[in-house]
Specification:
With about 325 residues, the chain is α/β, with parallel strands linked by helices. About 30% of the residues lie in helices and about 25% in strands. It has two domains: about 170 residues, Thiolase/Chalcone synthase (Peroxisomal Thiolase, Chain A, domain 1, 3-Layer(aba) Sandwich); about 150 residues, Peroxisomal Thiolase, Chain A, domain 1 (3-Layer(aba) Sandwich), CATH 3.40.47.10. A five-stranded mixed sheet has the order 1-7-6-4-5, with helices on both faces. A four-stranded mixed sheet has the order 8-13-12-11, sandwiched between helices. The chain is globular.
């Protein structure tokens, strides 16, 4: 009996229309285009505008594109997993809200918070449901409204983040394609370097927490950068080695888009030329759980069935990981 694997059969994406570029940011906070580009490589980021809009609304648009591309109907979906650190509400799960807005009824659904590694965590979880035979059509969506937790008076963090969403449809296959291997890790020591201080059960929302700006992203840049460079590169090389791959075997590296220097260090460790690395950080910034699927969405027409692709991430927690997959379809 052949082994069942989970394969990506479609990709959809969405970014808001409004673009916040470095020139506009320079009028809001003490920074310059040169300072931002030299440190992180971001030129602009998309920002969700409009009252009452959240991460779910962007996720809905990304999934609608999948439905349109594939002819999939809402009632065919067995499971929706949303990777996010900016849920619409503390509860219910944003996955449930997305399902309701798309008329997906009676499906299993929940959120995963793995910070910037959230999409890989969700992809791995979804693939296990398919491999076990429990689910047939699964949506994994990374959706983030990072602008809702960014302090636009803090030049060290406000330049980094953008809003957006992207999703994949996973289905079972007995071909030797799809998700072949994964390495996912975390270490809670890193939590002190990158987190949001208030809004949870330790420091519930209050006038004091709001006055102290405790509901925004807090980051200590140097330890985050140092760990990201080493851990994202280490795990990417590890997944290559244990699958007996060299740089010549890999068609694409899809790295989390947090910092151009981190991406470059990972590619260098893997001995990959820039032409094999998906990079769109300049136009989108760091959309956290959405960065990796947004890359797949943008590069979809360049991907060929059987391509060896390595996904790699690093995020708050610390969380990090790598997924090796063989692409499931040719350009349509």
């Amino acid at each position: 009996m052949k082994k069942t694997s989970a394969v990506i059969t479609a990709v959809g994406g969405y970014v808001p229309d409004y673009i916040l570029n470095n020139q506009e940011l320079s009028s809001m906070v003490d920074t310059t285009d040169e300072w931002i580009m030299s440190r992180v490589g971001i030129k602009e980021r998309h920002i969700q505008k409009g009252e009452g809009l959240g991460a779910s609304d962007m996720g809905v648009e990304a999934i609608k594109e999948i439905f349109e591309k594939t002819g999939t109907k809402p009632e065919e979906i067995d499971l929706v997993i949303c990777a996010t650190v900016t849920p619409d509400h503390p509860f219910p799960a944003t996955a449930n809200i997305i399902a309701d807005k798309l008329d997906i009824r009676d499906a299993h659904g929940f959120d995963i918070n793995g910070a910037c590694s959230g999409f890989l965590y969700a992809l791995d979880t979804a693939s296990r449901f398919i491999e076990s035979g429990g689910k047939k059509k699964v949506i994994v969506v990374g959706a983030e409204k990072m602008s809702s937790i960014v302090d636009y008076t803090d030049r060290t963090t406000c330049v980094l983040f953008g809003d957006g969403a992207a999703a994949v449809l996973l289905e079972p296959t007995e071909e030797e394609i799809g998700i072949r291997d994964r390495i996912l890790k975390s270490d809670g020591f890193g939590r002190v370097h990158l987190h949001m201080k208030a809004g949870g059960s330790v420091y519930p929302s209050s006038h004091e927490t709001i006055d102290k700006k405790m509901h925004y992203v807090y980051q200590e840049g140097q330890p985050v950068f140092k760990n990201a460079v080493s851990k994202m590169a280490d795990v990417s090389v590890e997944i290559m080695e244990r699958n007996n791959m060299t740089h010549e075997d890999i068609a694409w590296l899809v790295p989390h888009q947090a910092n151009l220097r981190i991406i470059g260090a990972t590619a260098e460790r893997m001995n990959l030329p820039k032409e094999k690395v998906m990079i769109n950080i300049e136009r989108y910034g760091n959309t956290t759980s959405a960065t990796i699927p947004l890359c797949l969405w943008e590069w979809e027409k360049q991907l060929k069935k059987g391509d060896n692709i390595v996904l790699a991430s690093f995020g708050a927690g610390f969380t990090w990981g790598s997924v090796y997959l063989k692409w499931g379809y040719d350009p349509k």
